[in-house]
Amino acid sequence: MSETTTTSTTSTSASSSTNISPPIQSFSSRRRASTNNSNSTSPTLNVDLINKLASQPVPIIMPPSYKPEAKYEKYVNQLVGKVIMSAALISKTPGPKLKNNLLAQKGILIKFNETIQIVDAIAKGKLHLELISISGTKYAITTVKERSFYGFNTNTNIGGGIILIILDNAILVALFPASVLIGEAVPFIENYVSNTIIT
């Protein structure tokens, strides 16, 4: 009786041990399963979207210091000071709008028709025969040189004068106050133009 009981207990224990142990997978099997799962969830490329984005131009925003008009603004800003109270650069090839004609200005508000008048009068060689209007103020040209024009403000209550110099790609318009003599203003601006390059 004692031997039979021992055998039954051993058999029951073995059966229980077999039911608890999980099935053992080989390393290669687990790797294949992992690879299959990875392939099934990998994203697909949207070729149409990529082609659409590639065909659209991307705007290039240039920093202020690299904008084309920055060099003109720098040129004018350096000129204006104690001797020259205001200045502007006008394009030698006028366009249909003020922004096409006026490259830069400081301390002055030139109107569209005024830029056209200056460019047209210089092209026809008649600048000294006309009253030049700058912000509504009239100036008379009294001295004409190879590339320069000097004049005075017709409003004697305000005084001051005007200097225009023809540059390579623009016309420089500079105004000086009544407190500055023309004999001081002319050498100052001529020296500035000769030694300063628009870059």
TrEMBL record:
<dbReference type="InterPro" id="IPR048278">
    <property type="entry name" value="PFN"/>
</dbReference>
<feature type="compositionally biased region" description="Low complexity">
    <location>
        <begin position="34"/>
        <end position="44"/>
    </location>
</feature>
<dbReference type="InterPro" id="IPR036140">
    <property type="entry name" value="PFN_sf"/>
</dbReference>
<feature type="region of interest" description="Disordered">
    <location>
        <begin position="1"/>
        <end position="45"/>
    </location>
</feature>
<dbReference type="GO" id="GO:0003779">
    <property type="term" value="F:actin binding"/>
</dbReference>
<feature type="compositionally biased region" description="Low complexity">
    <location>
        <begin position="1"/>
        <end position="18"/>
    </location>
</feature>
<protein>
    <recommendedName>
        <fullName>Profilin</fullName>
    </recommendedName>
</protein>
<dbReference type="Pfam" id="PF00235">
    <property type="entry name" value="Profilin"/>
</dbReference>
<comment type="function">
    <text>Binds to actin and affects the structure of the cytoskeleton. At high concentrations, profilin prevents the polymerization of actin, whereas it enhances it at low concentrations. By binding to PIP2, it inhibits the formation of IP3 and DG.</text>
</comment>
